[in-house]
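Project channel, design review

CF: Before we commit to the Parasponia andersonii constructs, I'd like one complete example in the thread so the newer folks can see what an input/output pair looks like. Taking Lipid transfer protein/Par allergen.
RD: sounds good, go ahead.
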Amino acid sequence: MKGMSRTHLVLNKLLIIITYVVVVCMVAHAPIWCAACSCEEVKAMVAPCLPFLRGSGNSAPNSCCTSLIRLRNTVSTTTVRLRNACECLKKATRLVRGLKNGRLQSLNSRCRLNLSFVIRPDINCNSIR
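CF: and here is what came back for Lipid transfer protein/Par allergen:
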């Protein structure tokens, strides 16, 4: 970098920082947000839906549907991921106090998920294809 003016050095550093920020943002918002889709990651994606599932409000909030669509797009890439997410949600339905099963079952249509199954406490996740 010998012979570069101070302005060029500052601009180069700024360009490197901007490039780094853009790459970080791209990775953070990539559609595949989890490698193995752990149960904790799945539950975090469903968290915005909890108030609605417990009876608050007349419709699922946009943040809920957005998270569920993102989750669906990620886990539906393989049957194993889909079944693992199903098992996680199935277990979670048993742990959430005040859960309204009717609201849970309505999320597929309310959020336009187009899933071939409905999450409920008694679902057989192994039957999902």
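RD: helpful, thanks. The chain is about 60% helix and 0% strand.
CF: The chain has two domains: 1-30, 33-127.
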